[in-house]
Amino acid sequence: MFISVAQAAETAAETVEPSFFQNPESWVAITWLIVVVLLAKPVYKGITKGLDERRDKIKERLAEAERLRNEAQEMLVTYQKKQRDAMKEAEGIIAQAKAEAERLAKQAAADLDELVKRREQQAIERINQAEAEATLEVRNKAVEIAVSATGKLIADTLSADKANELIDAAIKELPNRLH
To answer: What is the pLDDT of residues 87-124, one digit of tens each?
Structure first.
């Protein structure tokens, strides 16, 4: 046993740690570091290029969204102005229609008054005409009655000689009365 411990100590002394460059693990680490350094630059460029492209796309989308928002805002302002103009025009049309309705109502009232006056005047004229016709009819009837009564009175009181004298006098005056 002592020999084996001595041998183990001797072997252990002989197996002293090799130097850094003699250790295979060191070489693996160095190789790994070289690979990482060599691959880091292209990978970093690829990652940054992808991120830059994504950032540019996002900027473009934001700019497009801003442009669309501005266009929408302008359209909103335009349509609001058009709506206000349409409301003003509608109010003007309503005011004009009210004024026209009032004018037509006044015109209709004036026309109605004129029609009533015309009808009243026509009625008055008809009444006057009917009155004149009635008066004329009454006169004619009175003359007719007077002539008839006079004829009877003359026939009853006038002698034949006297009647012939009156007829002859009327015949003599007839040419004077015709001219």
So the answer is: 999 999 999 999 999 999 999 999 999 999 999 999 99
State the Cα–Cα distance between residues 160 and 166, nearest whole angstrom: 10
What is the torsional sign of CA 69, 70, 73, 74? negative
Quick count: other Cβ atoms within 10 Å of Cβ 8?
10
Residue 125 to residue 120: CA distance in whole angstroms: 9
Which two structure tokens, joined as six digits, stand for 122? 């026509």
23: Cβ contacts below 8 Å, ≥ 6 apart = 17
DSSP state of 15: T
Phi-psi region of 175 (alpha: psi -120 to 50; beta: other; left: phi over 0): alpha
Q: Taking a C-beta distance cutoff of 8 angstroms, is the pair 20, 26 a contact?
A: yes
Amino acid at 112: L
| Stated length of the chain | 179
pLDDT in tens, 51-84: 999 999 999 999 999 999 999 999 999 999 999 9
Whole-number Å distance between alpha carbons of 78 and 85: 10
Q: b or e along 79-94 (b: 16 or more beta carbons within 10 Å of the residue's beta carbon)? A: eeeeeeeeeeeeeeee
Sequence-distant (6+) residues with CB within 8 A of 21 are: 27
Give the whole-angstrom CA distance, residue 138 versus residue 160. 33
